[in-house]
Design a protein that fits this description.
The complex is a heterodimer of chains A (about 725) and B (about 160). Chain A is elongated, with a radius of gyration of 37 Å. In chain A, strand 17 and strand 18 form a beta hairpin. Chain A is of the alpha/beta class and about 725 residues long. Chain A is built from 19 helices and 26 strands. Chain A has an eight-stranded antiparallel beta sheet with strand order 4-3-2-1-5-6-7-8, covered by helices on one side. In chain A, strands 18-17-21-15-16-20-19 form a seven-stranded antiparallel beta sheet. In chain A, strands 9, 10, 11, 12, 13 and 14 form a six-stranded parallel beta sheet that branches. With about 160 residues, chain B is an alpha+beta fold. Chain B has two helices and nine strands; from the N terminus they run αβββαββββββ. Chain B has a five-stranded mixed beta sheet with strand order 4-3-2-6-7, with helices on one face. In chain B, strands 5-1-9-8 form a four-stranded antiparallel beta sheet, with no helix packed on it. Chain B is globular. Chain B starts with a helix and ends with a strand. Classes of the chains: A alpha/beta (about 725), B alpha+beta (about 160).
Chain lengths: ~725, ~160
Amino acid sequence: MIVSVWRYSHLLFAIISSIFLLIASITGVILAVEPISNKIEPYSVSGADELSLAETLENLNAKYEEILAISRDRNGFISVTAIVDGKNEAFYVNPFTGERLGALLQKKPLFQFATNLHRSLFLKSTGRFLIGLASFLLILITISGIVLIAKRQGGYRQFFAPVVRENFSQYNHVVYARFSLIPLLVLAITGVYLSLLRFDVIPDTQVALQVDFDSIQEEPFKEYTEFDLFKTTPLSELRELEYPFSEFVEDYYIIRLKNKEVYLNQVTGDVLAEEKYPTVQVMSSWATVLHTGEGSILWSIVLGLGSLAIPFLTVTGFIVYFKRPKTKIKNTYNKNEGTYVVLVGTEGGTTLQFAQEFHKQLLSIGKKSHLALMNQYTHFKKMEHLIVITATYGQGEAPASAEKFVHLVKKHPQKQAFNFSVVGFGSTAYPNFCQFAYETHEVLETSNNSTALQEVFTVNDQSFEAFNNWCATWSKKVGLNILLEKPKLATNSLPPSTFEVINKAEIPEDDTFLLSLKNLNDSKPISGDLLSVIPEEGARERLYSIGKLNAETLLISIRRHEQGLCSNYLHQLGQNEKLTATVVDNRNFHFPKNAKKTIFIATGTGIGPFLGMIEENSHKKEIHMYWGARTTNSFNLYKNYIDKALQDGKLTNFKNAYSRNQPEKIYVQHLIKQDKELFVEVLKKKGCIMICGSIAMQKEVLQELQQLCNEHLGKDLSHYQNRKQIKMDCY
Amino acid sequence: MKNSIIKTVGALGLASAFFLLSSFVKEPEVSYKCMIQMMNYTGEKAYVVVSLINPDGAYEKTLYVQGDDKEWFPDLKNWWEFSDGTKENVDAISGATIGNGERNIISLGFNAAHIDAGYKVRFESAVENQEYYAVDAEIPLNSATIKEKVDGKGYIRYIRMVPNR
């Protein structure tokens, strides 16, 4: 539905060819081993390539009674075919001594089987055709893939920039695709070439040398060791040398070198005929080498890994496709009936789910809401409220379903007055966070009869919490009461568990309290995971970051809101009372295992998960903590924990910023400026900065960090965000 | 009457005893160098089998198999019918397939008794998905004419044989 042409064709080609490509790639991986196992056979003789043909022939003729041919394969192994005791024998030799080194490599049954399956699926010509076609589709898949990556990355120049991680399949699909692009393209193109060659679409021109038998000379006689060609041609140039069939002068040496074929008079050494290989044949030879990796261990490995990427890319590709939410737009009211118009700009479909939920709730309270894509902007005759919910694609571009929006707004000025608000969905890990939303706001602002109801509201990482906040302020302004339900996105929540309250510490004048909970079930949260609490049936869930003090004790830090349903519910829980809640995996906010130095930045109750992480820092890694609150008093709730951690060496440093302790306000972001050397060093040395607390604080902190990056690191902040060096959990 | 039976049985016995013994006595071998020159046909590499044909026109022995993948052996229908039932070790006398325009030089060994005794050397050939030639070329095992070049009718352009040095 909302997929671009490139994505659609990428998928379509993949579906058509997947089975054949899977077979070809798996057998291809097996076949990649063959040239390697051949190449490592001990038949290479050092220095052999520098021998001249004259020396080689002399050495070998001395040892064998009748040689039929000498050849050099792509591995550089020299072999002879000779008649020994009246029988044909072919074997590898040492060209210096003529010593027999071993029998010719036989194709192992596994490789023979894999080759047949790889080439023709055991279906003879039909199979060869199918495989050829699949190769061709692979070229198209690769090309459309390149375009898709470039679009996602925001242009070809950013092609190899870090990929934003949305989920395992999406991330690794892009990352591995980039790595395997070149081998895959080479395999596909040469595969098609070899197929075309096989079906004679590319003519397999042969050298056809003509010998003028009438002019063959029988004298002057020369020893073959004196033949110019034999003397001047090194063995490295040789492909094959066939001895004259008989001693008659009409029979001649046939010499195939790397670039030409020569017939040589066996008596006089005259060149009877000579021809360079035609381009097609040279190309075919290259195509074979490039496709099979024959003679090169390194290239074989590259090809093998490229082949291996196909099953991986197929599987992750299909997972990405099937995981993508597929929602269809259904409308009760058409575009001329809706007083509320909800427009969506989405690439993958996630944003649509949020918009759909909002639209549904509007309908449920009896409002005439019309839902459409941004590209469907037109005259909406009864529109009073326009709500645009849009994602941003790549480097701040419009998503596929909104490409024409700006143009359409200009083309269709509305005749009646309306107000609008824009919600941008995106990830702060992209340099141009929600840029298209801002553009949308701008173009609507300049359009006829429009009034902006509020500034652009941005939602990071599909946060339902944030979207809900927007919805609350919006509905307040419009005078509605809307309660959104969380769309069923792929979250990793466990079944609900029961917890027992073992302690409650409180600072009443600060409205904050700490709950220590004992886990009665066996769900095993990690510090940074979330506890989802639903205070009463039908109420909306609230999420609290978990700090894990030990195997049994969890800590959550809560700010009590006067009218807060959930915070008051938690507050009234007494000692030993039970609480049912769900642990939600929050993988992106776990303590980094590999970072040597970590910085925690928190305000207020955001300190909660960090208390757990510090407690678990038994290896005493360097941790610097920056904490902001209103007054010194606020700290009393956590003082014991922090003091003990500093004493035990689990926390290196603790710095606070109390905004109300002195006349001028000090916030955590001011501390960053003070300690910029530490921050720069941590980012440089692959350390991690974790931020927990309010969205407003996050914004300020990120701004400060961005400035540090620009001034001292020469890289955009998003570079570090992509490397998971900056982890955030703000609300 | 009885005598003649005894004589016949005796003669048969002797003959068979001689025949049995003869398999232990090494017959003198004659070896020829043979060149198989292929045509410029299009398609896959050709499978060629060289067989010794007895005076009755039947397969006697497989002399050489040009082909490295047994999967395609049944394509050489007549020979496969004969060879599939025998205990011949084809691996010992086989070599690589060769493509169009190429040539292959091999050595063929014969029992001296087979020379000038009505035996023939038959070359039959097949190419994947293409026509099969039951008799692509055939050369009488005749010491006077064996050195003459014989043209093939299928994928083989010609065959040449010379006695080995």
